[in-house]
Amino acid sequence: MDTNDNQERSNHQHHSNHQIHRLEEYFNECPHPDNLQRGRLAEELNLEPKQIKFWFQNKRTQVKIRNEKAENAELRIDNLKMKCENEAMEEALKTVVCPPCGGRHPGREEQLRYIQKLRAENAFLEKERERLSSYVSQHRGHSVPRFDGPSTSNNRPASYGTSSNTPPPKPQNSVLLQHLQPLSQPEKIVMFEMAAKAVAEVMSLIKMEESMWIKSSIDGRLVIDPGNYEKISTKINHFKSTSVRPESSKEVVEVQMDVTNLVDMFFDTEKWARLFPTIVNEAKTLHVLDSIDHGRQTFSKVIYEQEHILSPLVPPRQFIILRSCQQIEEDLWLIADVSCHLPNVELDFTAQLCTKRPSGVLIQALPHGRSKVTWIEHVEVNDNVRPHRLYKDLLYSGLGYGARRWTVTLERMCERLSLYSMSDFPSTDHAGVVKTIEGRRSVMNLGERMLKNFAWIMKRSDKHDFSQQCDTNSGVRISVRTNIEAGQPTGLIVCASSSLYLPLTPLRVYDFLSNLEVRHQWDVLCHGNPATEAARFVTGSDQKNNVTFLKPSSGGDNSELMILQDGFIDALGGMFVYAPVDLNTAYSAISGQVDPSSIPVLPSGFIISRDSRPSVGELDTGRMTLLTVAFQILVSGSSHSIDLNVEDSATTVHILISSTVQRVKAMLNCE
């Protein structure tokens, strides 16, 4: 009996102040720790893992109860306000007069007649739209879209990346814009107020460095101090749920691009998507607001944005964002984002529910055409779509969509743009079969578009899963889509992808994939024969980042084949993407005389990501790699396609990716 009493008392002993403080600190950043994290925390605090587990369960319950109480109180207040407003409007309607003549307000019958008139006009306009749509369809082959969004650009042609007339394949149902209406004047006033508050808050977050930003107790990155943040922010959680978690981060970087071009690319949605091809899947301008001038002129627009990274196992994120641009000083610009709501616009339910709190960038001009960029990301995430276990730690650590990923990508793309604009071949290039600077730019354009398209196919929500092969025990996901967009072969395309974990650094994996001496041992496009470089153009300060044309050794099926390859490695990982092209297509790109956007490529490749748990001193390298492999096969649609039905193609691509993964793992001694 005494033993049981002692055991019961030990199970209910209170934690020390130090233990509670550490647990509270950890909970603020990660309310759902996994077994490994609970074990580490238990070891650190000299507690049992079960105690850690029960403490977090109790804490989540307390937070849920507190949030529900706060929500109920807010709802009661809102209900009372609405009741008072309704009573006030009812009283006001009784005394409404016609402003022009001062006569009595229109009666119920007059209102009904006016509504009927509006409906008749609307029906007439709808018939006219259908008539014009039918006419255009007969003469151009497609119908008039219901909405195409205004553009704020100066109609200057895009000089780099995906051509503006050949965007990546469009998602079919990512956001419903069919019933998008112009903003009313009251809505615009609300938007202007939101923009002003967002700009002010972002500037405050940047200026209040020591008091607002603290180092994460998990990985040492800068995160917002929630206590100090509540003092300057009037916003509360957008999602009342214990599954909501905040993500905040801050990074500073210098890039090789002048402030004017950088601001232009940030504010133009098409250029924005091209500047971040491996993060932004789609960006569209929905509304352009008039500029306002309260001492400083501010330009604002409402945009739709979809972000996605790394793997089909990672859910995409969607936002409706109010983006504002303000010039603070002659060489200082601020761009602020904040989530906003538009009536009759519904986001894709398969994506994560996210709200962007005031976030943004401060861009300062530096000498020699460089810019200093301070980037702040602050998002509330409701994990309605749980991430796969492979990527859970990466996303919960904030490295997935945090400021670090944006600044690393920005730095790399600015380097690529700078090298692209050179008027002569740099010494780091191996021009080979490419004889002109136009040909060099054409190949770099084609490689960048290939990377963009490969990143796009990683987004699972726009593809139809093939149930017979999807999520099999081998970990291979099969999907099928019909492509009609320019830039990729037209027809039915089968895609297979698989994600896995390797106990190697991302750099080691990238160097292996780039090694031409062993390439033919894992790449079926080489047909067992070594490949040689026909041309190579460096795309960054690290010469490992390059776009290359490869020529497999002569013989058999690959004698009329070349391989276009584009790859990069940075602080967070890399990509290694390639596509087969026939000789005629290759030399069309090499000549520089053909628009590269018209050249169809069907990329396959690898996405390399470092693990989110680096050792001390290895923050930029990491010891482990998350690897995603994806292959595509054209089933039907052209004379060069593989003549197989969908079932056979799914089996073929399944075998292809499985065997390639096994060969890669064996050669890296990771079986």
In short:
Helix content is 38%, strand content 25%.
Q: Which geometry do the CA atoms define?
A: globular
Strand content: 15-25%
Number of strands: 19
Tell me roughly what share of residues is in helical segments.
Answer: 25-40%
Task: Tell me what the structure shows.
It is found in: Nucleus. A hairpin with a 2-residue loop joins strand 16 and strand 17. The protein is built from 17 helices and 19 strands. The two termini are 53 Å apart. A 9-stranded antiparallel β-sheet has the order 11-12-13-19-18-17-16-15-14, with helices on both faces. It is α+β, with helices and mostly antiparallel strands and 671 residues long. It is globular, with a radius of gyration of 28 Å.
Distinctive features:
8-stranded antiparallel sheet; transcription regulation; Homeobox-leucine zipper protein HDG10-like; 19 strands; 671 residues; DNA-binding; homeobox; transcription; 9-stranded antiparallel sheet
Write the layout of secondary structure elements.
Layout: H1 2-11, H2 17-29, H3 35-45, H4 49-94, H5 108-140, H6 185-207, H7 209-212, E1 213-215, E2 222-224, H8 226-232, E3 244-255, H9 259-267, H10 269-275, E4 280-293, E5 297-307, E6 317-329, E7 332-339, E8 353-356, E9 359-366, E10 370-382, H11 389-396, H12 403-420, H13 437-457, E11 464-465, E12 476-483, E13 491-502, H14 506-514, H15 516-519, E14 531-538, E15 546-552, E16 561-570, E17 573-582, H16 583-591, E18 604-610, E19 625-636, H17 646-667
Antiparallel strand pairs: 1-2, 3-10, 4-5, 5-6, 6-7, 7-9, 8-10, 9-10, 11-12, 12-13, 13-19, 14-15, 15-16, 16-17, 17-18, 18-19
Protein name: Homeobox-leucine zipper protein HDG10-like
Domain Homeobox: 6-66
Keywords: Coiled coil, DNA-binding, Homeobox, Nucleus, Transcription, Transcription regulation
